Amino acid sequence: MAQYEVTLRDYWRILRRRKGIVVFTAFLLGFFSFLLASIWKPQPLYQATAKVQINLHHNLTGLYLQTIAYNSSDQIETQQTIITSQPVLRRTAAELGLLTRNTTAPDSALILQDLQRIITTSQEGFTNIITVSAKHPVPERARDMANTLSRVYRDYDHELKNQQAVRHREFVEMQRSNARSMLEKAEEAVRLYRERSELISLESQASVNLQGIRSSEREEQRLMQDLAAIDVMFAEMESSGGLSERTLQGTSVRRVGETFMSLSRNLNDQRLQRDALLVQLMPDHPNVRRVQVKIDQLTGDLTGELRQRREAMRRDLDAERVRLANLREQYNLLPSMGLELSRLQREVAMRQEVVTVLEESYQEALIREADKVEEVSVLEWALTPSIPTNPHHPMRRAIMGVLLGLVLGVVFAVVAETLDTSIGTIEDVQDYTGTQVVGIVPFINVDDVRASLAGRDVDVSDDRTVQRKAQLVAYFDPMSTLAETYRTLRTNIEFVSVEKGVRCMMVTSSMRYEGKSTTIANLSMTMAQLGKRTLLVDCDLRKPSTARLFGLDKEPGVTEVIVGNYKWQDVVRTVTDIVTGGMGMEDVLQTQGISNLHIITSGAIPPNPAELLNSRRMDEFLQELRDSYDVILIDTPPVLHVTDAAILGKKVDGALMVYKAGDVARRSLKRSTTLLQGVGVDLLGVVINGIRADLSSEFQDLGYNAYYAYGSDVTAPERTLEQKLRDWSRRWGKRLGIGEDDHIPPPYINPDAAAAVDSDDLEDEDDYDEEDGGSGLGRRLVTYVALAVAAVGVSWQSGVLPGLLSMEPTAEVLPAQPRLTSQPPQTLADPVERVDPQRMPTPEPQGLVPVEPQVTDAAPSDVERLAADARMDSQEPQSEAGEPQFEADVPLFEIIETPRSYVVRVAAYPPGSVWLERNLAALRQAGEDAFLSPVHVDSERYLRLLVGRFQDWDRAFSYAEQLRDAGAIDEFTVLHLPYAVRGEGVINSPYTTLNTKQEPILAGAFATAGEAGRFVADPRVWPRGP
User: Fold this and answer.
1) What is the value of pTM for the model shown?
2) In this structure, is residue 230 part of a structural domain?
3) What is the rounded average pLDDT of the residues 448-469?
């Protein structure tokens, strides 16, 4: 996006464009300020002030306390808090007569809360003087409150300092004793744990366990080898009846035992003896048989011995495995045992630190007890005030509200301008879309056209006729500047057409009501004025408007030609049809070259427009038109609404995009141009329509007088006051919906055929020059009210508005109300009772009426707080309900180049789109391999919806056509994205395919390895933990 320096002219343009927000906010805040100031008239409050001096180093003890304190300001703030504390306020209320013997605990609490609200304290500059102020509707009452509180605070501080030293030393001594006992318990816990777990040192125990595990593993391996060798020997004996000499030589005595080796040697000797006998005797000879019997007996003994040896080894192997498992289990328990030991050791260290701190505090308490401190004195008593602190000035508050409203209105105007996602400059359109701007059409109001036509003695009484003449300005008012802009557009297109050889082009837009039909109608007339045979084809088969603009019959047209009911030569409208349709012979004669313009209307609205436009007959129809005309202009539906424009874009030579500045979001324009370029459409340029002077400083001069062309004799007529009021009432009547009926058929339509006119023909698709309608006014009013209410609410809640209006609450001290009760009133506890020093008791003076005390929990001691912190540290953190938990181990990713590098792109959406989630879920429920992949376009992040992974382009395209024929997708593009991400923890992710049988599991699809790397490092895709 182009960058510009913001000037005062730009701010003035913003204020002119959003002046309604500024005026409405200022009026609303001013009105409410005056109203609230008039209704809520504050009660007069009088303020009395007394001054108290704090002497921080009156003696040696005070000097020591000041040395160990942080700074003097901390001490002053502490004293201010003590002045407004409940013990001091309770004594003050009792002396003022607000608390009596019959006052109950709830009433006492309300009285003390009121005193805390109406009494304030502040430090006088950087001195050690505290100002005590009291506000009350009665001046004498305010004076008595300030003086009584100062005196009570002075006496309270003196009593507190005399008692506090001893109590503080006793308290620290008790806490020190408790801390020492807890330290001994912690040390004993460490000792018992070491003895119970036999864990002296974690490192030594781990070393011993590792040596045992290695030894056990070696023994297990040896037993497994020996068992395998015995199995081999056992198999050899069963197969051959004995063991060979080679086997015996390779077998150790440790493996088979001495008995087995002895039997093996005897067996070999008997075999040698038998072999020697067989040399001279027959096998059935008695001597041979006797030797054979011994051989069989030795073989059986040998087999039995070997079987026993194998069973023994198996038992040894099982026992060794059990021992190895026990060693490993003990080794795995070492971390938890070490963790528990570390926790106990931390507990000991913490207790030692607490004992050290308490020892230091004990020494300080001994020093403080050695002397008494008297620090507070009343420096100045309060006098009776005579002037209230909150005078009533409603008009002043109203002016302040208006000023605040102006400031907030300007802020809201700038915010509204910043949040406006439309594009208002030529450079922005070119930089954002990458396409040149070939034309600019300024916004011209209907009233301007009416004034121009009235200056030429044209009847302007009918609004429909005026609006129609404004839309076909190249025909009805060819000398105007607006008509000149269309000729400029024609010239720019001529240059582009000559360079690219464009003869057949379509005109489309992103959304409805951007002026594409009006643009193509005027462009076709300016093309015809060059002497070129020009054909205007209305291919908007959903909401056609060309027939209505030129006063022609909608049928027959394009639909009948494609279906085959008519030849295209039979449905072409010429100048004769235009004249008979209501244009008028005079207008035709004054417009040169209009006879070169031919028109083919849309025809009947079919049930399947996209299929008709994508048919073979449509291709033949366009080819025949190319052979017969010099210029062919095709009107199509908006790009983002239907697929008709994308289908026709592949059949024409180029496309022209119309963009209504200030009304359509920039992303819509970007998506439209990207979609057309994605299907191979040659985008010739963008036409910016509806340019207003308040959209950009580039168009400040496009005002009322810009309607009249340079060199024209027609000048802007001077309108009377009556005409201005009538135009103003007509414009607001249209906005509020009380004007004329918009559905009255135009006068050029035959009244007899009015009943046959479709409602679609009467709908103005372009919304050319009408400003915002009634719904726009309602939206603006709702927006203004919401912004103003939000501003008032924020100002009120933040305290700004009540502060400006001086609406401070009147704090009237509640008088003591007698209450009947069956129980006697409770008295205060003994003032010398030992309590927590965090909340020292208030010693009641003689004659003070006892009241019911408030029961509160004592503050926890330092030791208890440290113990609680230690328990919290030992617990695992718990997550809040509903918060997603992530694994601590992040799965490892690997960027690979997959052989299945072709994917089917269905669409691209911005992050968080509802349609993205719906379409992904629908494809996955249908069993398709659908997944997401991020892509950055012009520094903006989008998510591609992709389907499948294929080895070549043909397979991907064939599969995509099957999906489209089945109705699963509407359009597609085959992309070559060879890079993907492989990982173990990416199965349950929208970025991976559902086909988990295919190895490896891949996530995303990217054109380069750098894009895949950014995908892996993106925390929005793979969170790295809580």
Assistant:
1) 0.40
2) yes
3) 61
